[in-house]
Amino acid sequence: MTTTPFSPRPLKGGLVTIDPESAKVLRVISLQYNAESLKRELKAQEAGGEGGDRAEPTRFKGPALETISFEADLDATDQLEFPDQHANAVAYGIAPQLAALEALTQPGSAQLRKVDGDAGSGTLEIAPMLAPLLLFVWGAGRVLPVRLASFSITEEAFDPALNPIHAKLSFSLRVLTVDDLGFSSRGGALFMAYLQSREQLATKVQPVSLSTLGLSGV
After folding, report:
1. Is 208 domain-assigned?
2. What is the pLDDT of residues 8-51, one digit of tens each?
3. How many domains are contained in the chain?
4. What is the pTM of this model?
5. What's the CA gap between 25 and 64, in Å, rounded?
6. What is the rounded CA–CA span in Å between residue 75 and residue 77?
7. Dihedral (C-alpha) 12, 18, 24, 29: value to the nearest 10 degrees?
8. What is the domain extent for residue 57?
9. Max CA separation in the chain (angstroms)
10. Which of 159, 149, 145 is nearest to 191 (CA)?
């Protein structure tokens, strides 16, 4: 597809980490190439659902459980064509970008050392390590608090020093709701804003009468 200088510049999708208490932005990770597709799976939380109370088959327990899955690519080929402008790509390939994504899956070394130090000092109860709040951003209308359910990397090409220069990434994200985060948290507020935006979109559907379905009433 050809583009002109007047074509709108497409936004980048990506991930953002914020401090869960202060809401300060810690890191912004934009996708080098936007995913070609997003798979969204929503599972209703029904009070009378499987294993639930059969006396309440039409009640909701809470927001739907939503999972977002997508694939993305990282490639340093274009950057390697201009080594004077992209020294890091020449030295490390896409390893820095992969390392930033891997950091989303585990605590940092400083956190691990602190836990070990607390244990060595005889601390009786050690609280689980607090992770930054992860946001999935797909345009201004979809800013969602999420948990990284799974993340895989397939490194497919390497430079002479065996630094990866091309990789395929696969993400599975579980949307966090007010059930997970509470209403008073920044993440809970973001989820509510997202839910309200979806409700507004639903009102823009053209009304359809029962006669369209061959019915005069129900």
Report:
1. no
2. 778 999 999 999 888 899 999 999 999 999 999 999 988 765 65
3. 1
4. 0.86
5. 27
6. 6
7. -30
8. 15-104+133-200
9. 75
10. 145
